[in-house]
Amino acid sequence: MENWAELDRRYLMPTYSSLKLPIAIEKGEGNYLYDTEGKAYLDLFTGLAVNVVGHSHPKIVRALKEQGERFLHISNVYLNPPAIRLAKRLSDLTIGGKVFFTNSGAEASEAAVKFIHKYQQKKAPDREGIVVLKKGFHGRTLGALKLTRQPGVYQDFPLPPYKIIEIEPGNFEELEEAIKQKPLAVLMEPVLGSAGIYPLPEDYLQKAEELCKTNHVLLCMDEIQTGIGRTGTLFAYEQAGIEPDLILFAKGVGGGLPLGGIISKPDLSDLFAPGDHGTTFAPSPLSSALGNTVLDILLEDGLLDRSRQVSSCLWGQLTDLKASCNHLIEDIRGKGFMTGIVLKGNPENAKTLRTNLLNDGILIDVTQKTIIRLLPPLTLTNTDVDRFIETFKKHLLSLDKG
Ligand SMILES: *Cc1c(COP(=O)(O)O)cnc(C)c1O
């Protein structure tokens, strides 16, 4: 058999080498991945919040085949029915305006930056700058990287000259002060993801909406990780009862294929004029067909409702675990199936647990060194939850001995 680890080291630039696990994946089915030796792994990572309906869902595979037999790519010069249908559904389910599709999350952030500057040119020439949150993550291409406020991620690169105003997440006064500086937009993740799973309080999101509305500032929600049912509603902002002006989406929306984009409110939907933005590949008809299938499964088959029950079972069990292991668990935080287990004690604990769970056939993620991040598929079952908790608890308690 090929030595995939050795070939990976030789031929792929080492940008992911500190994260990479030594298993070569052969196939996926439901909530499990299988490696080339046939070992099964319960997938609580879903390729970073992408496979929301699990692996090789029969409806996804059927949609892939059906659209694959029709056409894969046509460009934006002809009408693209799967994408038009998806745009209509995303619009109807959210803030009612038009969609611009991209191939990835970073490109959705890039589109948002351009869109916000069209707002400046056409509607708000006396305003400047985008308010972003400390430790926020919005992508790694140069235009998006300026918005990403994580030390170690952006410092080494030349950033574009547009202005940003950085504030502490959840701090009302800093938000008010920032709005006084007459910015164009406020951009935030409703639950900060790679920063370490920080849910913004609902009253903070409501305050942001109120301040933005009265001051003609665009409220932009980066739902790239939180969207498509991850936090228990189709988009996380819904739970605060607010209406953003712009929504960024990607990750789960294409059912495993690359797809992202932005949705605006109707009164802003014609800020991009012909020629203002574009890309060859997006919206991929194939990704769009899968996107429609994801929405069918979440909304028509009732998976979104069902996932809320399973996620509350997970939260209940994690809360109990924390109560019995207070010396090892600092906090459990997040929303729905976007869950962070903040560890304390030896800073290596998270990595040790990741390795030990891998050996026992469970895949989890670690972010910010000490935080276990769970991003399971929405198809997770109560049995999967029980298995995870039991295995996790066993390895957590064994940390005491080591
Ligand atoms: C993943 C992510 C991005 C970037 O998406 P890519 O597809 O990796 O470019 C942007 N914002 C948030 C909140 C994300 O989680």
From TrEMBL:
Its cofactor is pyridoxal 5'-phosphate. Keywords: Aminotransferase, Pyridoxal phosphate, Transferase. The keyword Lipid biosynthesis does not apply. Pfam families: Aminotran_3 (PF00202). SUPFAM superfamilies: PLP-dependent transferases. The keyword Cytoplasm does not apply. Its EC number is 2.6.1.11. GO terms for molecular function: N2-acetyl-L-ornithine:2-oxoglutarate 5-aminotransferase activity. It comes from the Bacteria. Gene3D superfamilies: Aspartate Aminotransferase, domain 1, Type I PLP-dependent aspartate aminotransferase-like (Major domain). PANTHER family: ACETYLORNITHINE AMINOTRANSFERASE, MITOCHONDRIAL, AMINOTRANSFERASE CLASS III. NCBIfam families: PRK01278.1. Belongs to the class-III pyridoxal-phosphate-dependent aminotransferase family. This is Acetylornithine aminotransferase. It comes from Scopulibacillus daqui.
